[in-house]
Amino acid sequence: MQKIISRDMCNALMVWFDEHRREMPWRGSADPYHIWVSEMMLQQTQVATVEKYFHKWIERFPDVFALANADLENVLKVWEGLGYYTRARNFHKGAKYIVAHTKDKHALFPVNYEDWLKVPGVGPYTAAAVSSIAFKYPAAVVDGNVKRVMARLFCLGDSISTQKYHKMLFEIMNEGFHGHHPGWVNQAWMELGSLQCTPRPNCSTCPLNEHCCAYKNDQVADFPRKSEKKKIPTRYGAAFIIEKDDKVLILRRPEEGFLGGLWEYRIHIKGT
Ligand code: SF4
């Protein structure tokens, strides 16, 4: 089967998206900062959780200058509860980079995918999301949901966690916008993966079932191909709670690495 997103497929996807898309506080916005905030929060976090944090964040840091000028401590405090604090640190670094590199306050942000990739902490997913949604730049967003949808749509046998697979989808999808707004097409693919082509998909009502290789061949359960699970290492450690005069000793972990920069009781993990 040819790995091409045809105009008919794209049109069917967009009709479905118009009818089924969920409302989100940032959806429909063309403000690059708001889109950037939502995309940083959405990595590894459910939409419902992000909705609660998004407003709080915008209230506290209404624009990229407010974020860049804030103390990292305050940034981490507002992020508290979202987990994966590296994202907050990177976001803060990225905001500083934008403010330091801007020459014109009316054209603060990079417009294209390649320039977004130069911003510290911004990877291919965020670069494609922000450039396509805010600036209509034709760069495909390849997230976990999209990888699953494409594997089924084209019966792709490759392991979905490889760079090679990511690159292949990026190329296929970049040819599949067919004149639609790239940001909306990207969101439509992600929404299809979240609502329809889920791990237990609802194929009978899917707008793409007549184009779907896995469905037509009764092989939906075979895709995506599972890669071998990485062995999770077991580590042993001991925590010491040191108290004196009603005070407890806590230490800060190094900035880089596991739980970087967070506070902890004195913990010694074997081998570290
Ligand atoms: S037909 Fe089923 S497997 Fe194929 S894209 Fe639609 S939901 Fe996914």
What would a concise description of this structure say?
About 45% of the residues lie in helices and about 5% in strands. By secondary structure, it is mainly alpha-helical.
Describe the structure.
The protein has 272 residues and is mainly α. The chain is globular and about 70 Å long. It folds into 3 domains: 32-135, Orthogonal Bundle (Endonuclease III, domain 1); 140-222, Helix-hairpin-Helix base-excision DNA repair enzymes (C-terminal) (Endonuclease Iii, domain 2, Orthogonal Bundle), CATH 1.10.1670; 237-269, no CATH class. The model has no long low-confidence stretch (mean pLDDT 92). It contains 12 helices and 6 strands. The strands form 3 sheets. The protein has a two-stranded antiparallel ribbon. Helix 9 crosses helix 11 (182-195). The chain has helices at 7-20, 32-42, 47-60, 64-69, 72-79, 86-101, 113-117, 124-135, 144-153, 163-174, 182-195, 213-216, and strands spanning 237-240, 243-244, 247-248, 251-252, 263-264, 266-269. It binds iron/sulfur cluster. Iron/sulfur cluster binds next to helix 9 and helix 12.
